[in-house]
Each structure stands twice: as structure tokens, then as C-alpha cells.
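hiii so my PI (J.) wants the whole complex modelled not just the main chain, which honestly fair. so below is everything: three entries, each one labled with what it is. i double checked the lines twice but i was tired so who knows lol
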Amino acid sequence: MSKKCKERIGLTFLNVFFLALCFATLIPILYALSVSFSGQNSLLSSDFSFIPKDFTFENYKRVIFGEDILVWFKNTVLLAAVTVTLSLAVAVPAAYCFSRRRFRGRKTILKCLVLLNSFPALLSMFAIYRLLRPVGLVNTGVGLILVYTGTMAVFSLWNTKGYFDTIPMEIEEAARMDGASDLQVVLRIVLPLAKPSIITTALQVLIYVWNEYIYATTFMTGEEKYTLAAGLNSLQATEMTGSWPVFAAASITVSVPVLIIFFLCQKYMTSGLTAGGVKG
Amino acid sequence: MNKRRKERLTTCAWSAPSMILISLMVVFPILYTFYISLTNMNVYHWFDFSVIGLKNYGRALFTFDSGFLSALLATVLWTVVNMVLQLVIAFVLASLLNIRKLRLRRLYKTLLMFPWAMPGYVSILLWKTGIFNSQFGLLNQWMEKLGQQTVHWLSSDLSAFLCCTVVNLWLALPFMIMIMDGAMQSIDRSYYESALLDGANWFQRTRAITLPAISPIIGPAVIITVFTTFKQFDVVYLLTQQAGAKTGSGFHKVLTYAYENAFITNNYGYSSAISILIFLLLLIFSARYQMKEEAGR
Amino acid sequence: MRRICSLLLCLAMLLSLAACGQPAADPAEAKRLVIWHDKEDGVIQAMEQHLQAAVPELEVVFEKKTSLTDSLKLVGNDPSAAPDLFIFAHDKVGVFAEMGILAPIEELLAEGALEPYLDMTLEAASYGQTLYQLPLYFETLLFMYNRRYMQDEEVPKTTDELLSYMENNTGRGRYGFVEQHSTAYYSAAWIHGFGGSIIDETATPFPDPLAVQAALEYHLNFVALMPGETEYSTVNTLFLEGKADATIGGPWMVPSARGAEIDLGIAPMPVVDATGLALAPYSGVQGIHVLKHAAETKAAAVQQLLAALTDPAVGIELALASGCAPANSLCYEDARVAEDPLVQAMRSTAEIAVPMPNIPEMDVMWTVVSNLLTDVNLSGKPVEESLQAARKEAEQLIEAMK
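here's the output for the full assembly
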């Protein structure tokens, strides 16, 4: 009885703690939310409250119907889907090799990659432009996909490889005894076991693509080719004319799909490993 | 023999796409930047630039004055402080989120991920104008309500450093929590059950089971985060150093310092030389760290 | 590692092969002109409508580009990626002219087409005696006040009057006057008011350091009566919420001030008592630039377009659509333009305003001056020392450009 009671008090505390933490974390976002519902065009106000003044949906209406946001949304979804798929398709086999096979230079390459990846990106853009220009990939979705996949490639490789390392070899060997090929082993055994890492990698790539605007605005021309982040940036780019409530509404609108995806992914975050991989 | 060869071939084929992409988008820019650093590419020689050897490096070394050194120190401090806080906070939160009876776990996790889903520059802007602004920011509005003096949060070095750290943690923690959470999910519950039977307390369990189990999994992500924290530019630049909206703090990171002292000159040769030198510094740092780590084993 | 190298080589070869197979230019392309811009929709719509009526045979495509200057530095003169023309302020003319991507404008225009243009705009758009931009409209900062708090007869004529007004009306969360005091663009007005300048034509930073020093020292009296942080949104909000009686701001503030139902007054800039000169803000001339490749391959279309844009009707439409002050003096013959108080105020301020320097060296001065102002106004460092440090920094940066 007393143990149960103690546990209940502990849980209540924990829930209160998390509620408070979530609230604290969300303050800047609640701020944006409040501005986005407000009828006054200002980000600042001397008597701010989390409940907007002159409550209105006008800003959201303007975002959804006034701008090309549906076109941008379509562009972004397409871009993100292809980039995520490609990133995983490229990273998983490589990560598997780097995790399972032993070859000369394996460790060196891995270390080099992470060091090279730390090169300040401020000047990479120029070089990448020089690379994509002659092939006619500037101002095309394919070009952007290549840039994004390449930029995230080291991360994807490292992150998946790290997880693969923790999956015991014995599980695979059993399957190999049954005559499964490399591909089958990866698809049927390694991937399901590595779900949490695959999902975190995919989410990180997704969020990078979703929120990246520097390449998207510099390499792409014309509003009909913008991604959401690029469009959002252009909404606010000329500080002088930008409308804060619309900008805030657009920021929230842009973030919501990512959150939904995140919420849906959580169910699959648990690895199959605990469900009885080795023991089974 | 044949089998080994076949294996080697598959290894090559399987890693090739990844390696090619990395060479194009990561390695090539570095080589190209190095090449440009040897030329006189600037506003006056935009297309007709020619190789001028190591001249840019000679000039770049002059930039590495006391201002640069203090920026370098600040950057190292920034990386250490941020990484330690990130790891500790993320670990504690992830462990708490993994307490079994916590029903609302998914809701909390999703809410905590919100900062990650917002585009970075939007969040930084929100923090700067909504929270830290000395006239209208929430912090000062609350200070006023509490009858306290208002504070210029971003104008002195130390408080700017702390504010930037808070914002950086806010931006980076969701990912860290997620990685840790994912790693903890993969630990076999039965370990804990037997540890509990043995009467181990939370600290013992953490030390004996959780840490060893998650460290190989989160290791790569942590290492990559160290580097991104080191080269993090946006937070510091947008919060305190943005041209036209400087707040008066002298807190500079290597990159913001290089930005103000080289990149704005439109001299690509010179800026490239500085980028390469900063990159070399980073290599030396990590090489030393690695040597120590290997010696420690 | 060797494997990576060879792969890279193979790929490079493939890429260069692919590059050879680019499609040849389409003859219909010669009638199609792409214009990059980063302007608000109202301005572009007005231009688009005018062009559709004036030159229906041309296909003019306006493309909004947020990071316009950075993108131009990347694409340069490359016909496959660069636009044919772009609309931007005149202050980057020097950079792009030195890069060699701009075509001189005068030879693309009919003789005498430039005669009605205001001298200030043509001067601003020229770099080294060559005109590289066809001016469309210009903007300067204006002295604005809220009639609810500052009566017309209270409007300060001199800076000392402004100071005493501020002393009497600042406190308890209210301000007599606010401006972005630590931003180079705004502080230039004060520096000019003391006869100094940020950079001269020969790229000497702070050619008259004593004047700059006097301006900064005097300006500190005003800074003390303004909030510490004064970036755009703070100043804007203070004025729009009626917490500041007066401000110096651009024409872009006018629509939001009207939206906030402020009884807006616009007055001439106050005169500095010590020198007898009025505060002289920078002016920016917005205009259209032609890229070299377009001038060479699409000369006919470009000439047609420019001719259509020299028509005073464009300026009138722009002025009516978004309160811009046209660069073409003929536009002011239109009664509606002539009577617009905002346009009038801008035109009279333009007589004292100093066009932003357009030499490439100015690019680094924005940062130098903004650092100097931060040191002096926000960190409270001594003016003389900070100015000396800033001069040294400026010289180093300018040296580093070469």
C-alpha cells in the first residue's frame, strides 16, 4: 500500500515536472502562436500576453490562401521524401559495410569523414555552385537533393553505423546458415532491429531539408520553385515590409507537419531487439 | 579466396554511392576552397583570377591577433559548456521519460521536440526579439512585474554567452534527447529487472547498465554534435552580432570573428585562406584529443 | 583513399562530358527577359502592368530573389543561371561593375532620355563616370512625428531643440525621440550633419575624423535618452505604440503608421547648431541594372524594355502605388504625385541627402561603422580611441579586399 502510494506521488511529481518543462520549452513558440493570432502587425508589444489581442484567423488565411504556400509545400514534401529515401538508401549499405566488414583504412576513412564534415560551410556553397553549374543542376530540384543528401551523408553514415555495431553478429549468422544473401540479411534482420536509429537519422535529414533555406534561396530562382523554408524566409526577408503576424502564422504552419510526422514515428521508435532478438 | 574477393567487391559497391556523394559535397568543396585560397580571386579579379601562391596565407596570419585568440578560447569554452550541459540534461530527461509508468510519455516527447521542428532562424529571431529584447522582451516584462531592474541581456560578454548557450541548448536538446531515448529503448528490460532483484539503486543501474549500453549507440551522434557546436554560427551571429542589430557584447566565436574580419571583404582568396587555417586548427585540436584518448585506453 | 580519388576523377570526367551537351540558345529566348528583384509586391505589380501595356511583344519575367546580391556573386555573368536584369539599390553598383558583370546603361538608351532625371539619382547610379543603373525611384530617411504628442509648432528646428524636447519628454517608459542610433545607415545622417563622412571617393575611411568624432560625441547626449537596444523592431514598435513622439525612419514605416492610426507628421531634418548643416541621411536609389551577357545577346529587347521604363508614367504609377519618390523629374508634373506629402518630403530631403557611396570599399564600412557605434554607444568606450581603432580596422579590411 505505502509503496504504491509513494509511487503515485512520484509519478504525479514527474508529470508536474514534465508539464512545467514543456511549458517552459514552448514559451517562445507560444509567443509566436499568440502573435500569429493577433490582428496587430507587431512582433513586440509592451503588454504582452499569451492570449492574443484582436483574435483573428486572418493571418492563417493569408498564409494558406494568399501565398503560394501549397506549391511550396508540394515542393518541400517531394524534396524531403526523395532526400530522406536517398540518404537512407545510400547510408545504410555503406554503414553496414563499415560496421561488419573489416578492410584496410576503415577506421581512418570514418575518422577522416567526420573531420572533413566539420569544415565551415560558409564557403562550401561557392564550390558546390561551381560543381553543379557545368552539369546544369543549378536551379533544379535534383541539384538541391544532391546537395542535401551529400551534406547529411556523413551524419547518416555515422549514425546508422553506430547502431549497427550494437547488433550482435549471432542474429545474422543464423540467417546466413539458412542461405540468406547480404541484401536479405540487411533488409529482413538488420533494418528492423535498427529502427530507432533509422528513424532518428531519417528525422534529422527530414528536418534539415524542411528548414534549410540558404541553398534553397540561392540555388533556386522563382517563387514557384521555393521550398517552405525559402518562402518563409522571403516573407520576412525585407524586414521593412514584412508582416510579423503572417510570418509567425507561416512559421507555425511550416512546423506542424514535422510535428505530426514526429508524433507518428514515436510508435516505431522501440527497437525490435528487446522484443526477443537474441533470446528468440 | 574467391569468396573474399566477392566480399571485397560488394563492400566497394555498397559503400560507393555514399563515398561518391561525400566526395562531391564534402571533400570537393574543401579542395576547391584550398585552390581558391592560392589565387587572387576578389572583386577586382572575379573571373580572371590567377594563382598567387601562399600570399593569402601570409596576410591571413595577421588576422590571427589577440581578438582572434580570445574568439578561439571562447569557442572552445562554448563547445565544452554546451556539450556537457547537453549530454547531462538530455540524459536525465531521457531517463525520466523512460520511467515505465509514465503514461503521457508520447505527448511530452512530442512537445519537447517542438523547438527542433521550427526553422532555426525563426526560433533565434523569436528569442532575440520576443524574450531578450530589453524594451519589450518577456524576460524584462517579468522583471518589471517582479519589481526588478530591467537588464540588457545581450549586451555584456558573460550574459550574452549565457543567453546564446540557453538558445543553443533549446535548439539542440530535442535531437539529443531523441537519440538518447532511442538508445535507451534498445536496452533489454531484463537487465534492469535482475539488477533490481539484486537491490541496485538508480545510480548503480545507470553506471552499470544504461551508460555502457547507450554510449556506443549515441557515440557517433555525440561526436558529430561536438563539431557542429564548434562551428555553430547562426546562434551567436543572429543573436548578438548581426550587422545593424549588434547588441554590444564582445562575445565572438572563431567563425563570427572571421566573418567580420575577412568574409565581408568579398575577397574569396583571402577568406578561403582563413577558412582553411581555421579548419587546420580544428584538425589539430581533434588530432590531439584523439591521441589522448588512445593513450588513455 | 586512392579509391575515392579515382572515383572522384571518373565523376569529374562524366560531369564535363555532360556539360558539353548543353542545349543551344532558343531564338524565341531573345524576347524573354528575366528580372531579379527583392522588392515588395506593390512595386512589381505596378511595373508589370505598365510593361504589359507598353511592350506586349516582350515576355518579362519578374523573379523574387531573397539573397539577391549573394546569388549574383555566385552566378555572375553566366547566361544559363543569371538573370538578364535586376532591380536593386545603387550601393552595390561598384562591386558588380568591378566584377565586370554590369553593362553601361547609357548606350542602351535613346539620346537625351536621361535629361529629365534628377541629378542626384544619376550621380548615385554612376561608378567611375559610367552609368550602370537606370534609376527608378529613391528613398531617404525622414523626420516623422506623432501629432498626438508633438504639435506642429513643437517640431524641433535644430538638434539642440530636439535634445531639450527629449529631455522634457523622456521618462516613465516614454521617449521624446527614438532612432536606430547604433546602425551605420542611421548614424550617417549625424556624421554628415557635422560635415564628416564615412568614406570618400578615393576610398579613404573617415576622411575628416574630427568631424566624425564631434558627431559621435554630440550624438551620445541623444543616445542617453533612448533605449539601449534600438534595432528596427524596437524603434518601430515604440513609435507605432505611441510610446515615442518622434523618430527618423524610412518611407516603409508610413503604411504601418497609418495602419496604427497615428496622425503622422513629416518634417524637415533638424539643423545641427554647431555647423548650421541639417542632418543629412543617406539616400538609396533603386533602379534596374543590365547584365553584360543580356546587353550583348538580347540588345534589342533590353533597349525596348529600358525605353519603356524611362516613360514618366512608370514613376507616377510607382509613386501612387507605394509612395516611392520617382527619379524622373517629369513625374512630379503629375498633380497627384506633386501633392503627395510623403513624396514631397522625400524629394525635399533628397536635396540635402547624400547618396550612399557605391564604391566596393563601402561594403566593409557598414560593419566597421556598426562596430564603432556599438563600442561608443553601447559599451561606453571613449570616442577618440574607438574611432582610431575603427580607422585602423577599416584600412586593414580595405587592404584585404585587394
